[in-house]
Amino acid sequence: MGFEGEKQTAKELKRLSKHPDWFVRHDIVLGSRANRDHVVVGPAGAFLMDSKNFLGIGSVESDGLRVRQVEDPTDGWTCEGLGSRMRAWGAELGESIRTATDVEVWVQPVVVLWMDFPQKVLESGGVFYVEGKSLGEWLAGRPLSKRPFDSRRVVEFLRSA
User: Fold this and answer.
1) What does the angle CA 87 – CA 9 – CA 21 come to, to the nearest 5 degrees?
2) Residue 110, by phi and psi: left (phi above 0), alpha (psi -120 to 50) or beta?
3) Strand pairing category for 107-113 and 76-79
4) Phi, psi at 105, each rounded to 5°
């Protein structure tokens, strides 16, 4: 199911990658660590995205994602620490970019949810949680980055990573 979520996010991001101002990279590996699902760079900044595809109804609680069963909303589970992991991974990517290019860039962590997510878009603790179907529109509607950076050098690094 996780791979299906990644494929759906890639399909949603494909529309952005057709525009010259946006760069999209999937399955990027930094060092010996696990891959990161998606990295997007554009006029609105740099984004690290992790796709989640769960059965149930999602809500953000504290620093985790709560998944409730459709048949019984009192039954479910929590993906604990998701927010803190995403913040750490975003910081790690930002540091990798800075080390390789000498470019300072804030990497915005985003969790893309392919499930019933009534909140549609929510920011919690510096992490955005975005319903998958709303991702392209959400990114395209983001304001220009308040922290300008040399996106050309960042994209060159991401292409080679």
Assistant:
1) 80
2) beta
3) unpaired
4) -145, 135
**Nearest to residue 108, comparing CAs of 159, 143, 134, 81?**
143
Alpha carbons 116 and 110: distance in angstroms, whole number: 17
Q: Order of strands across the sheet with 107-113?
A: 23-29, 35-42, 45-52, 107-113, 127-131, 121-124
* pLDDT one-digit tens code per residue, 111-148: 999 999 999 999 999 999 999 999 988 998 999 988 88
Helix or strand holding residue 34 (H, E): none
In the DSSP assignment, the letter for residue 102 is -
DSSP lists the bridge partners of residue 35 as 29
Instruction: Print burial letters for 43-75: b (CB count within 10 Å at least 16), e (below 16).
Output: ebbbbbbbbbbbebbbbbeebbbbbbeeeeeee
Query: Which pairing describes strands 35-42 and 127-131: parallel, antiparallel, or unpaired?
Result: unpaired
Does residue 49 contact residue 103 with C-beta atoms inside 8 Å? Answer: no
Give the pTM. 0.92
Q: How far apart are CA 37 and CA 75, in angstroms?
A: 29
